[in-house]
Design goal:
The chain is 46% helix and 9% strand. By secondary structure, the protein is mainly α. The strands form five sheets. Strands 3-4-7 form a three-stranded antiparallel beta sheet. A two-stranded parallel sheet has the order 1-2. It has a two-stranded antiparallel sheet with strand order 5-6.
Amino acid sequence: MTNKTASSRVRFAPSPTGRAHLGAARTALYNYLFARQLGGEFILRIEDTDQKRFVEGAEEELMAGLRWLGIEWDEGPDIGGPCAPYRQSERKEIYQKYAQQLIDDGYAYPCFCAAQRLAEVRNQQMKNKQNPRYDGTCRDLSIEEANRRIADGEKHVVRFKMPREGSTTITDVVRGEITVEHTQLDDTILVKSDGLAVYHLAAMVDDHLMGITHVIRGSEWLPSFPLHGRIYAAFGWEMPEFVHLSVFLKPSGKGKMSKREAAEAIKDGHSIFVQDLRDLGYLPEAVVNWIALMGWSYDDRSEFFTLADLVNKFSLERLNPSPAAIDFTRFDHFNGLHIRALADSDLAELLKPFLAAAGIVADDTTLLRIAPLVKERLVTLDDIVDWAAFFFKENVNPLPEDLVAKKLDAAQSAQVARRAFSILSGLPNAALETTEEPLRQLVAEMELKPGQVFGVLRAAVTGQKVSPPLFESMEIIGREMVLERVQHAAELLEELAATAASEG
C-alpha cells in the first residue's frame, strides 16, 4: 500500500440500470469500511451515461438499500459536495473537454465508421479466427479532415488511440502486476455519437477530478484495466490504487446467477436483491456480516461482525480474489445470530410489521413477552407469523389428527385433554409456576411420556405441532383462553374417536 491511505477518498459508482444486488452492496460496503477506518471520505457517484439502459427508480432503490445497510456517504447526488455534480449525465461538458484534450495530444481520434461496416469487419475477423477489434480506418485521418467532417455534421464517435506495439503493466493491490500486450487491446470508444462519454473516459476523469485515491470495484472491469491505465498515462495523471474484487457465483459455484435462478431463489425465501432481503425478514446487520465474508476474512475463526467491528478490522490485504459462491444457508445462519443479539424490545419492534402484513394486530405488551420465547427459533423476521400468530387469535383450529399423541389413539388423547382441562380449571391462573408442576404430575399419574401429554396440549393451545415453550405460551395466552382451547380440543378428539369407533 502507498501513503495515499493517509487521506483516502473512495467512491461507489453504480449505474442505475437495474435493481441493487448483493455484488453492488458488497462493493459499496468495502469502500465504506476502507474510508471509515482511515478517516477518509466515501463518495456516491451515479454513472448514468448509458441512457438506453436507464431504469426509472433504480437510483432511489439503491440509495434506500445502502442506508438500510447502514452505509452512509459523505458526498453524493442527494447531499451535494465539493465535487458536484455527482451524476455523470450532468457532467457531459467536462468529459467533452477532456476528450478534446486527448485528441489534441494525439491520444484519441474521431471515428466516422458506420455501424454496419464495423459489423462486417468484425464478422470477417471472426471467420479468419482473429481477435475482433477496430481495423483503424479513421485512426490516421488528419486533424483537418476530421474537423471538416465534424463541421459538416457527420456522425462520429471518439476512440482511444492504443499503441500498436509494446505492452502495458498495471498493478492491482490484491492480484499484483498485470501485463497485457497492446496487440490484444482495441481502440476503444470513449465518447459515443450522442456526445455522451462512456465509462472508460468518464470514470477516469471523475476519479481524477474528485481526488479518488483507491478504486475498489468489481472484477468485471479487469479486462478494461489496461485501457484505464493507458488513459491515466495519456493525461499524465497519477493513478489511484486499484482493487478488483472477487466475482459472486451462484450457490452451486458454477457461473453467475441468472435472472431465472434469481426468480427461483425468491420462491425459497432468498434473493440477491437488497430490497427483497429487507422484505423477506433479513436484518441489515446480517446482510453486512454475510457479504463482508464473501471475499474477505479476518482470521480462520471469527464469523460474527457488526458494522463497527468491520470498520475496525477490515483491510485490503485480506481480500481474496477467488470467486465466492452465494451461500444462502450461511446467510440464514448469520441472520439467526444477529436476531439473537438483539435486545428483546428491539426484536419486538422489528417483528411488528411482519405480523401486521399478515393481518395480525399485535399489541406491544404481548409482543415484548413473546420476543424472548421466539428469539432462538427465528431464522428470518417473517417467521414470526408461523411461530406466534396463535397468540393473537381468538380461536385456533388444530387438525384433529394433530391432537392425537404418539402411540395413543383419539380416545386416549381425548382423555389426556379432559384430565388437563380439569387440572387447569382448578388453578387460579396460567402462570408457568402455577401450571407446570400439576401437569407434570398428570404425566406421572397417567404413566405417559411428557411429549405425549404436552404434545396434546401444545396442539390444543397453539393450533400447531411446533411452537414456542408450552408453559410460557400458556401464561401469555391466559387462563380463560387456554381453557377454551383445551375444551375445544377435547371435543374434536372425542368426535374423532366416535367416528373411528363407528367405522370399526
